[in-house]
Amino acid sequence: MTLVAMPEPSPPEPNIDAPRAPTLDSVARHAGVSRQTVSNVLNNPSVVRAETLQRVRAAIDVLGYRPFAAARNLRTRRSRTIAMRLHPVRDGVKGIVHDRFVHAVVEAARERDHRVLLIPLARRADETAAFADAVARGEADAALLTAVERDDPRQAELVRQRVPFVSFGRHRGATGRGPWVDIDGAAGTYQATQHLLRCGHTRIGFLGWPRGSRVGDDRRAGWASALADAGVPADPRHELEIVDNTDHARTAIEAVLRRDAPPTALVCASDTLALGALQAAGLLAAEIAIVGFDDTPTAAIVGLTSVAQPLPEAARESVRLLIAVIEGHASAHDERVLIAPLLVPRASTLACVDKQARPRN
């Protein structure tokens, strides 16, 4: 039998008419600028004039240019990544707020061509070591601290380890360090109390967490300030401290509503507590106006007036400030951003019409 050698098939001819991927040079030609200017727009936009920045970014969009991230990161010695703790799964309002904020940070970082490294940690004590390790390995450029308390040791520890960071939450006390972004809880409960005062209430109670919580104490302070400014005395019998639990709140408010001259309105430190108060009012068929805090999906479903935290804005400001810290802007290290929340009136307080308020679904 004769074996016949078959010729190997020739490789396909390259398609010389196929469009080439845009490059730094093609973007520069399209925008009428130098290659270095395009590089500055991508890696150091603060040194580029606003008009040029806009023109180059328009060229990038038109051409569909995508920088090679690995090469850029080697050149700039930056990972363009922010480290952030992913808290353990939690039920209730705290878990919802954290999840919303994480999602908003990821979106805000993506808009600024950055990514978020989520580090799942069960223990708060492990957080600073994990952030320092991520920065040392080049996996992240900086860290975003969350759940900041009054005397929080994490900031001083990150400063000691030379880890750039921004805190979501104000720091106070001797250990407080570094820039922060926060939502003004006192301003939120001040708005809530004013809303109830305009509805004609004068016996306005407060249902909050045990004292010592930075966030809880701020929210209590807003309620107390609004009453004081209106010349309405706060009744200590109507100020309750409860752990953040719906069942505990329901039991406590049931007892309060059975007393003589109970409060006719209630400002709560969270939607969790407010939902417990609503249950108590329903069980006793009591008429009481109730305001929560955090504007969770459950609040919208049951018609609970609540104070909404602008988490997307807080996330954008946190990412902006983090990038400024990473890029070495000296002013960023002392920057403080305090964001006002928004009252969302619903059925739980609108039986008494506040003409200055507008309901939102």
Notable characteristics:
single chain, 361 residues, alpha/beta, 434 Repressor (Amino-terminal Domain), Rossmann fold, six-stranded parallel beta sheet, six-stranded mixed beta sheet, 14 helices, elongated, disordered C terminus
Can you tell me about this structure?
This protein has 361 residues and is of the alpha/beta class. It folds into 3 domains: 24-76, lambda repressor-like DNA-binding domains (434 Repressor (Amino-terminal Domain), Orthogonal Bundle); 81-182 and 311-339, 3-Layer(aba) Sandwich (Rossmann fold); 185-309 and 343-350, Rossmann fold, CATH 3.40.50.2300. It is 44% helix and 14% strand. It contains 14 helices and 12 strands. Strand 9 (289-293), helix 12 and strand 10 (305-308) form a beta-alpha-beta unit. Helix 1 (24-31) packs across helix 3, helix 5 crosses helix 13 (311-326) and helix 8 (185-198) packs parallel to helix 9 (214-229). It is elongated, with a radius of gyration of 27 Å.
The helix content, as a percent range, equals 40-55%
**Strand-residue fraction?**
5-15%
- H/E element string? HHHHEHEHEHEEHEHEHEHEHEHEEH
Number of helices: 14
* Strand element count: 12
Largest sheet: 6 strands, parallel
Any idea what the CATH architecture of the largest domain is?
A: 3-Layer(aba) Sandwich
Structure, briefly:
With 361 residues, the protein is an alpha/beta fold.
Topology:
Layout: H1 24-31, H2 35-43, H3 50-63, H4 69-76, E1 81-86, H5 92-111, E2 115-120, H6 127-136, E3 142-145, H7 153-160, E4 165-168, E5 180-183, H8 185-198, E6 204-208, H9 214-229, E7 239-241, H10 246-257, E8 265-268, H11 271-284, E9 289-293, H12 297-302, E10 305-308, H13 311-326, E11 336-339, E12 342-344, H14 347-350
Parallel strand pairs: 1-2, 1-3, 3-4, 4-5, 5-11, 6-7, 6-8, 8-9, 9-10
Antiparallel strand pairs: 10-12
